[in-house]
Amino acid sequence: MNIQIYGKNKCFDTKKAQRWFQERRIRFQMIDLPRYGMSAGELASVKRAVGGVEALIDEKHRDAATLKYLAYDAEREARLLEDPTLLKTPIVRNGKQATVGYRPDVWETWE
Fold first, then answer.
1. 88 occurs within a structural domain
2. Is 111 among the domain residues?
């Protein structure tokens, strides 16, 4: 497995995801989302895996409501690339598979 965890240092779900993989001795790469962000290709891959841009938006973010008024998904994606703090965390990738949020039930099925 080639696990990547995109998250925020102060996010409790990100910490829980890190702990889940550490307890199972599964190696992962942690990427600080506010600092490094995601590339357009990575965002597109995660979007395909989770079923669209709507699943990626952090509803608790103060600017999340403005994304709902954007007409096109391309505009939303551009805004998410511009401000990665709008992404819901943790985003956990395993190749082409990905999850958003704390999803140990899905991670157990990954090989």
1. yes
2. no
Q: What is the percent of the chain where pLDDT is above 90?
A: 46
Structural domain boundaries enclosing 67: 3-103
CA separation for the pair 44, 38 (Å, rounded): 10
- Model-wide pTM > 0.85: yes
CB neighbour list of residue 111: distance below 8 Å, 6 or more residues apart: 1
Q: Residue 60 maps to which CATH number?
A: 3.40.30.10
Cα distance between residue 45 and residue 95, in whole Å: 9
Q: Please give the pLDDT value at position 75.
A: 82
Angle at 108 between CA 4 and CA 34, to 5 degrees: 25
Rounded to an integer, what distance in angstroms lies between the CA atom of residue 40 and that of residue 47?
Answer: 10
In whole angstroms, give the CA distance from residue 106 to residue 84: 24
Domain count, the chain: 1
